[in-house]
């Protein structure tokens, strides 16, 4: 489960806007929930997802466990279906019965356009207890009072550190505050005789690997669309200013030209040559899935995991971080929405199904009961993310029809800011606010 490149999210968002007027009608589009299938119902449910290869097989097995309750219902899981393909199928009137997407940032657009159905009538009818899902995770599956999706496993972004490199600098534990992170970075970083960087303590560039504004935001408590009217108010946010000042402090320590040259020689994020795997980077942000990559390509790496550092003024928030994840919902126009709901309810709330799937693909199960299961396979590094997930301190983006555009605008600004192209922080953030709010006005017709 990986974050999508912003260009992919924006391309998909454009199609989702089109689906507002182009989605075909069909069953289950109204407010009345569809009836559950009979126990002996004989039908096929088509499921779209982006999973491939080993992960696709594991997800198929999880979906097919539904047949224990409905033995005559067949599951046709079609992997490698991205959000563009999904939206096109909705527009053409050939939507799958159930849709799985990696990208929760698209949910606001889906809800707003009507491309995904509101499942709240089903939740209310069946008295389904959604309190078993951590609130911060449940939040990103909702939009404007509509429950347009449920979480289908989750990602939590924590902090990875090389124990050997920290020990060489005299540290036995990871930094807990942003002040300590700056101190650690300066002491751990190694420069060559010519002044070039040999080993970086922490790379402050955005975007770089998992360095994105939404993943860093919990360090200072910065939030998207935090104005009193639901609009962007970054220019009036002390938290965003603190975050960008922190970033600039570290860029100035390295020198932006040296930092760019160093980054240019590093391996790709998802390759075996990842800088953290190779000992070129001592500390970084990443999701729980990084543990599996390290086991596979750098099994001898001596590393630890921890919650991300936080602002010294927010010590009580330590233990939290950014959360997102895969979502699952009922597209508009399906023939048997009641059956779609029963499948979704099973794979998102059944403890045994979630635990087995988590063990197979190494993402976090998305209910509190599955987190506590004795059958969940956990090592020391993975436990950090389980503790964060169940700790009640996670932060996620609010569902919005402009999330993808807002995230891109902020990350683009971060790049310009550290490059010296935005010398006035407050003025630059005000421009970002205007850009996001214009996009929001267009989407909402205001």
Automatic annotation (TrEMBL):
- Give a yes or no for keyword Manganese in this entry: no
| MF term (GO), any | maltose binding
Q: Cross-referenced SUPFAM superfamilies, in alphabetical order? A: Periplasmic binding protein-like II
Question: A single Pfam family, by name?
Answer: SBP_bac_1
An annotated GO cellular component? ATP-binding cassette (ABC) transporter complex, substrate-binding subunit-containing
Q: What are the UniProt keywords, alphabetically?
A: Signal, Transport
Signal peptide interval: 1-23
Whether Transport counts among this entry's keywords is yes
Any GO BP: maltodextrin transmembrane transport
Q: State the similarity comment.
A: Belongs to the bacterial solute-binding protein 1 family.
Designated name of the protein:
Sugar ABC transporter substrate-binding protein
Protein's organism = Kibdelosporangium phytohabitans
The uppermost taxa in this organism's lineage are: Bacteria, Bacillati, Actinomycetota, Actinomycetes, Pseudonocardiales
């Amino acid at each position: 489960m990986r974050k999508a490149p912003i260009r992919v999210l924006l391309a998909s968002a454009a199609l989702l806007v089109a689906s507002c007027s182009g989605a075909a009608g069909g069953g289950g589009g109204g407010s009345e929930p569809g009836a559950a299938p009979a126990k002996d119902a004989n039908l096929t449910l088509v499921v779209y997802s982006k999973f491939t290869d080993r992960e696709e097989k594991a997800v198929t097995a999880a979906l097919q466990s539904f047949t224990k309750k409905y033995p005559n219902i067949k599951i046709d899981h079609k992997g490698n279906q991205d959000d563009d393909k999904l939206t096109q199928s909705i527009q053409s009137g050939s939507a799958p019965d159930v849709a799985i997407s990696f990208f929760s940032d698209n949910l606001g657009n889906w809800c707003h356009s009507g491309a995904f159905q509101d499942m709240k009538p089903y939740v209310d009818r069946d008295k389904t207890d959604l309190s078993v899902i951590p609130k911060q995770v449940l939040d990103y599956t909702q939009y404007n009072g509509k429950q347009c999706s449920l979480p289908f496993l989750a990602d939590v972004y924590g902090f990875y550190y090389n124990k050997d490199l920290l020990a060489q600098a005299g540290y036995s534990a990871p930094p807990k505050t942003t002040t300590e992170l700056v101190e650690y970075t300066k002491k751990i970083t190694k420069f060559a005789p010519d002044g070039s960087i040999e080993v970086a303590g922490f790379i402050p560039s955005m975007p770089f690997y998992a360095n994105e504004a939404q993943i860093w935001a919990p360090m200072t408590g910065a939030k998207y669309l935090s104005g009193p009217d639901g609009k962007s108010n970054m220019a009036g946010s002390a938290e965003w200013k603190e975050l960008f000042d922190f970033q600039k402090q570290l860029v100035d320590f390295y020198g932006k030209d040296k930092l760019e040259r160093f980054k240019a020689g590093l391996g790709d994020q998802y390759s075996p040559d990842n800088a953290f795997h190779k000992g070129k980077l001592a500390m970084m942000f990443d999701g729980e899935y990084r543990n599996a990559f390290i086991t596979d390509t750098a099994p001898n790496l001596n590393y630890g995991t921890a919650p991300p550092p936080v602002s010294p003024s927010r010590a009580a928030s330590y233990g939290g971080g950014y959360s997102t994840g895969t979502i699952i919902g009922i597209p508009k126009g399906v023939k048997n929405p009641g059956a779609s709901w029963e499948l979704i309810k099973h794979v998102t709330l059944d403890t045994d199904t979630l635990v087995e799937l988590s063990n197979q693909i190494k993402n976090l199960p998305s209910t509190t009961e599955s987190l506590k299961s004795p059958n969940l396979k956990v090592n020391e590094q993975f436990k950090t993310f389980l503790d964060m997930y169940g700790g009640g301190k996670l932060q996620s983006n609010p569902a919005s029809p402009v999330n993808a555009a807002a995230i891109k605008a902020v990350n683009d600004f971060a790049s310009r800011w550290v490059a010296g192209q935005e010398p006035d922080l407050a003025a630059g953030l005000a421009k970002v606010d205007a850009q996001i709010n214009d996009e929001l006005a267009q989407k909402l017709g205001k």
